[in-house]
Amino acid sequence: MAQVWKCTGLRWAAGGPVLEWDGGRRSALPRGKRVAFAVPEGGGRTCVGARGHACPVRAAVPGRSTGARCEECARLDRAHSVAADTLADDPRPYRVYLAWFGPGMVKVGITAVERGPARLLEQGAVCFSRLGTGPLMAARRAEELLRAALRVPDRIPYAEKRAVRSVLPGTEAERAAEVRELHARAVALAGWPESLRPEPCEVVDHVGVFGLGGGPEAVGEVVALVPGGGVSGELVAVAGPDLHLAVGGRGAVVLDTRLMTGWELVPPGSAAAGCTFPVREFRREPDGLF
């Protein structure tokens, strides 16, 4: 019987991205690595639980869910989180940042200073700059100020991020331009929290870290894993939770590793490169009027 693996997610470690598995195993993800697995016929996806505890009922979860949690476990996991504003008394310093994912796609966010750049790598930020550092609630007020005064969102859907990665500007200066312009407008706003120390604009570019721009164009994204399906391809880029896999002559397919959690996965055998999971093609804008 084939060995069964259960993925617990992708993490950005000091040496680069790794897939983590039940039992503490890790798989490094260097570019050029072959990534291959399948879902057995008759397999099902079960809730991954919350905050280190297994789901008490092993509830079934949909294949398209990136959280892989049932409603109750999702509620428990979100409790006590910074995103849910349930940690207002957190004494750690926080950093406000501007993250850029593609033309017209800049968001504001916050992260604990102790996490360094991990949050930006996890989100797949193509480039970013720090904006300010201070207490959690001051960082939250600055985030809200940018949303209200400059209409800067605090979320950008992953589908939109993925669709533009193959058409990013070619130079760091071009990619940094929107961040620099918005940074200058943000720190000049009236109402900036007094306890938040402004940071100079120093744009960090992740194109090289992610491996974007040097491989085959991403043509679509896996929408769900399904029983009996599988994928086998060469890893050409990793951005946030996404693996860009060259799967034969059709270009690269983007696999969100959050879709892998909750499934029992097995080796695909000797199958050639390809993907038999459902894939949504990226829409391309026409070059002209017709």
Write the layout of secondary structure elements.
Blueprint: E1 7-13, E2 16-21, E3 26-28, E4 34-38, H1 71-78, E5 94-102, E6 105-112, H2 118-123, E7 127-134, H3 136-150, H4 158-164, H5 172-187, E8 197-198, E9 204-205, H6 207-210, E10 218-222, E11 230-239, E12 242-246, E13 252-256, E14 274-275, E15 279-281
How would you describe the overall organization of this protein?
The protein has 290 residues and is α+β, with helices and mostly antiparallel strands. Helices cover 19% and strands 28% of the residues. It has six helices and 15 strands. Strand 2 and strand 3 (26-28) form a beta hairpin. The N and C termini lie far apart (55 Å).
In short, what is this structure?
By secondary structure, this protein is an alpha+beta fold. It is built from six helices and 15 strands. The chain is globular and about 60 Å long.
Keywords:
single chain, 290 residues, alpha+beta, seven-stranded mixed sheet, five-stranded antiparallel sheet, 6 helices, globular, disordered C terminus
| Element string (H = helix, E = strand) | EEEEHEEHEHHHEEHEEEEEE
Largest sheet: 7 strands, mixed
Instruction: Outline the low-pLDDT stretches.
Output: 286-290
Mean pLDDT: 90
Counting copies of identical and different chains, the oligomeric state is single chain
Number of helices: 6
The general outline is globular
Topology, number of strands: 15
Radius of gyration: 20 Å
What percentage of residues falls in helices of 4 or more residues? 10-25%
Broad structural category? alpha+beta
Strand content: 25-35%
Distance between the termini: 55 Å
